[in-house]
Design brief:
15 strands; 5-stranded mixed sheet; binds calcium ion; D-Maltodextrin-Binding Protein, domain 2; Fructose-1,6-Bisphosphatase, Chain A, domain 1; alpha+beta; binds D-MYO-inositol-1-phosphate; 262 residues
Length: 262
């Protein structure tokens, strides 16, 4: 069954993270010196692939370190074998395995597991979202100025109007706490669990957001791009909130919010 294979694959990847964490592993760079890939990323991906291929050898796979394994299947696995690799490489236990499944272009299942604090987030479309088998839901805070937010920054400085630093500055000048955990998948799940009221990031990839996108939606949240249109994994900008602060945070991201500074 697809759901059980997803769970098995997520846990197989996570066992690799546990095996290498704080140990010895090779590290190399990708797009720039601080964009890392470790031996654990590669081994986690391999373990995940083994589980999927043993049950569903014909499914389409999109995975961060391998790219696309194309097929004509209408089921696509979207895999981040470690989300939070810089944290992982530094022994910071804020990282996870994130796997989402699309059917005919629509997210239907998502799983995110951080083995270091034993948090397993899961969602099946139409069935809500859970953390360690308990239902979760987004917060109900309606005032952006009283919100607790999280964001992330791309590996390479993004020099665009209303870029990551400008938006961060707008929010920090309004005295709003904005955290940076270093794992987009965990950021999304923590919005779903009501710990954060909103998360935004410029330049995410499909594997960062696939599972978390569904988990936030199924926890009652709202996910769009920076124009306010329904989110697509295949464009870079993501805004996920409890729904109530969405419009104001969208204005802030576009440099159009007029805060009342408390
Ligand atoms: C990164 C993390 C980080 C985000 C970056 C991502 P990686 O993924 O999700 O929080 O800010 O944009 O690339 O490289 O650790 O899989
Ligand atoms: Ca990632
Ligand atoms: Ca990754």
């Amino acid at each position: 069954m697809l759901k059980q294979t997803l769970i098995n694959a997520t846990f197989a990847g996570a066992r690799v993270l546990q095996q290498y964490f704080n140990g010895t592993f090779t590290v190399s760079s990708k797009s720039n010196i601080n964009d890392l890939v470790t031996q654990a990323d590669i081994e986690s991906e391999k373990a995940i692939f083994e589980v999927i291929k043993s049950e569903y050898p014909d499914h389409f796979i999109l995975s961060e370190e391998t790219g696309e394994l194309k097929s004509s299947s209408n089921i696509k696995w979207i895999i981040d074998p470690i989300d939070g690799t810089v944290n992982f490489a530094n022994g910071i236990p804020i990282c996870c395995v994130s796997i989402g499944i699309e059917q005919d272009g629509k997210m239907i299942l998502g799983a995110v597991y951080n083995p270091f604090i034993n948090e397993f987030f899961f969602s099946e479309r139409g069935s809500g979202a859970t953390l360690n088998d308990k239902k979760i839901q987004v917060s109900d805070k309606a005032d952006l100025t009283r919100s607790c937010l999280v964001t992330g920054f791309p590996y390479s400085y993004l020099d665009v109007p209303n870029g990551p630093l400008e938006v961060f500055e707008t929010l920090i000048r309004a005295n709003i706490p904005v955290r940076r955990l270093g794992s987009g998948a965990i950021d999304l799940c923590w919005v779903a669990a009501g710990r954060f009221d909103g998360f935004y990031e410029h330049n995410l990839n499909a594997w960062d957001s696939a599972a978390g996108f569904l988990i936030v939606e199924e926890a009652g949240g709202k996910v769009t791009d920076f124009k306010g249109d329904y989110y697509s994994l295949y464009q870079p900008n993501l805004l996920a909130t409890n729904g109530k602060i969405h419009e104001d945070l969208l204005l802030a991201i576009n440099g159009k919010w007029k805060p009342i500074v408390l």
